[in-house]
Design goal:
Layout lengths: L1 H32 L21 H8 L4 H32 L5 H10 L9 H11 L6 H7 L3 H12 L3 H9 L4 H12 L1 H16 L3 H6 L8 H4 L11 H11 L1 H24 L1
Helix pairs in contact: 1-13, 2-13, 3-6, 3-7, 3-10, 7-10, 8-9, 10-14
């Protein structure tokens, strides 16, 4: 009994150590955003600035390349993409998990195998397709592909498989169709999975740099990751401004997680109980 307690304490201390280790870069980022340029490369590192300098944070929002515009662009792309991804992934997952048709499992495996294709391989075909469709250099070049996520379909399918089939069978007996069962019965039960998918998908789109770099040209269309490039000057890098902008950039991620964390915990708890 005593050895078990010692093991738990040791594991807890080890996890605490790694947790603190992961937080250190974020603490350095926040600290640097309040420093003067001369303090950035000071060694040993001064974690608490001598004087808190708000100049860089103010410049991020009021400078010639205000982050307000980039924020609005990122929010527009992320929210529309997440809404579409959650709805379409849920519909596809319902079909793969609750509707019996020939070749269903084989089709799902083929669909799932597409996760092995590196996204960089698709840049040229997507560029040609977007240029043909007239959406290149528009936000739709990021929104439309973002609505289709293989991981989302896989995740929602696994959750729907855990829902007892007796629920949908009883609804069929009462005369309900697939769409009514999906929206009135299955989807309300999937709130924890939907919240988890929304948080993960939001983080993907909010931090998406490669697609924005390839498919957006006009600076008015830039997102937050591209906006950070404004702090890379011709002969130097404005580290203080970049860290201030990066600090502002993580705020939506923190808010989204805080709002949805209860659903994530609920989903993990319900899965554990079922197991």
């Amino acid at each position: 009994m005593q050895s078990t307690s010692v093991t738990k304490i040791a594991v807890t201390c080890l996890m605490l150590f790694f947790g603190v280790l992961m937080i250190v870069p974020f603490l350095w980022m926040i600290s640097t955003s309040f420093k003067t340029p001369a303090e950035v490369f000071q060694f040993p590192i001064s974690w608490i600035p001598a004087d808190f300098n708000w100049e860089h944070h103010i410049k991020v929002w009021t400078g010639p390349n205000s982050f307000t515009h980039y924020y609005l662009n990122s929010l527009k792309i992320s929210l529309i993409s997440v809404t579409g991804a959650v709805l379409l992934s849920s519909l596809a997952a319902y079909g793969f998990s609750r509707i019996e048709f020939k070749g269903r499992n084989a089709m799902f495996m083929v669909y799932l195998s597409m996760m092995m294709v590196p996204p960089q391989v698709l840049f040229v075909p997507k560029f040609i397709m977007f240029d043909w469709a007239g959406i290149y250099n528009t936000h739709w070049a990021l929104i439309l592909p973002g609505m289709f996520t293989i991981f989302g379909v896989f995740m929602m399918r696994q959750f729907f498989l855990s829902v007892p089939h007796e629920i949908s069978e009883a609804a069929f007996i009462d005369g309900a169709g697939h769409f009514r069962i999906f929206f009135r019965l299955i989807l309300p039960l999937a709130k924890p999975a939907l919240a988890t998918l929304a948080i993960i998908d939001f983080s993907w789109h909010w931090n998406d740099y490669e697609n924005a770099l390839v498919f957006l040209i006009d600076q008015d269309l830039y997102t937050v990751p591209l906006g950070l490039q404004n702090f890379i000057l011709e002969n130097t890098v404005d580290y203080n401004g970049m860290m201030a902008a990066a600090t502002a950039g993580i705020i939506p991620m923190i808010l989204v997680f805080l709002i949805g964390q209860n659903y994530i915990i609920q989903g993990v708890s319900s899965s554990a109980v079922k197991g």
